[in-house]
Fold this sequence. Notes:
- It holds the Pfam family HisKA.
- The chain is of the alpha+beta class.
- It is built from 11 helices and 14 strands.
- The strands form 4 sheets. It has a 5-stranded antiparallel sheet, sandwiched between helices. It has a 5-stranded mixed sheet with strand order 9-11-12-14-13, with helices on one face. Strands 1-7 form a two-stranded antiparallel sheet.
- A hairpin with a 2-residue loop joins strand 4 and strand 5 (127-135).
Amino acid sequence: MKNKSLAALFRHTFLMTLAACLTATVLTYVLAAALFAYALDRYILPANYYQQQVSDVAAYVREKNKTLLSPSEENGLKHSFQGNGMLYQVVDSRGNLLYGTNVQKPFASAEELFDSFADETVIRQGYYIYTVPITEESGEHAGAVLLFYHISPTFANHKGWVVSAVLLLALLSPFFYMIGFTLLFSRIFAKNVNAPLQLLTEASKKIKEKNLDFEINYSSDNELGRLCSAFSEMKEELKKSLSAQWEMEQERVWMAESLAHDLKSPLSIILGYTDSLLENTPDDTEKLRRYLTVIRNNTKKSTALVQQMQYASDLERSGLRLEPSPLDIAVFLTQKIQDYQLPARQKGITLSLHLPERIPRSVCTDADKLARILDNVISNSLQYTPQGGRIDISVKAEKDWLRYIVCDTGSGFAPKDLKKALDKFYRGDESRQSKGGHSGLGLYIAAQLAGQLGGSVEIGNTKAGGACVTFWHSI
């Protein structure tokens, strides 16, 4: 069974179910037939049981004739037939009911009774009705006895009902057997199939937990066995790939940390000496002042680059603890935009903030991380928006989120930028580097921080072609 293909295993299960159902059904029908033969005429009466008694009862009526018109003869009439399934009426020559077990007359008048019912079998009121006339010596009608009966199986006593119920269950037994044996054999089939699937499920959970030190102990020459073998091979390849990726990642983190460590101290010294020279510049050394100003500006850029790389390294290696606190978001955003108004005016860029009327007055979030996200996104927009351009910052309040949309009138993202701009160290297409190089960490850090705040970052372009960065966080 273990080495059978799934198709063969399914066919075997189906044939076993069918064979078991047929065998059980045949045995049940044989037993039911034996039970019916035993119960017939004992507990179950045949369909024509009362019809067969009509001739005997009619002979009795003709023998008794007019004496039956007396209610005192009712017991004798009752004893002329067997069972309780036959009803009767005794009427006089005018059709008036004298006595009987059926009080509803099936005829409209005496004329109809003696013209249409006498010595005939008719069907009225759901019964077969046979009428035996009672005559005078002169041949005139003195009355009649009407016999009512059904032509259908009846029961002699309560045991007949029990036998009938058993026979009905036997008749329906194929359906019950089909359900029962299907459940039984499908459970066996499922057990054979679920064993390797359970192993694969546990293996998937271990992979999710980054645990690749396990074995799948299942071997079979069928689809499931081959699936387990392929899964084991995939696990080994994944283990090799993850190991190589981990080593590359560790090397890249180490390089970034080393670069940050090596540049931080000398750049800080250069910045300190530059500030000292700028504070004590001789009057006749204007050229030296211009050079030192350029050195200072570039040193500040280098220092910011080092700090950004160091922050990205810390964020990636161990994460940063969240410190949520109540924050007046309108005041916070107004102040943040105000911080960028001066560099925006220097480039001739219009910087606008759009707040909805129903923005929450106070939200709970990490203000420092939110500020860093905004700094990175707005700085990027300022860098790539040309003079005379525009940067619009919109905020949308949702049920459990705040959504920020920062759109500029710059060159926008190239198609390949839209796929990789959130990756670490990605510097993008030339269209977004027209103003000089950058670390490739701004949007990466923004995305990582947004994730820590329970949100995410999306990038795209406006219809006019400018860049549009959307991020959100939970509140």
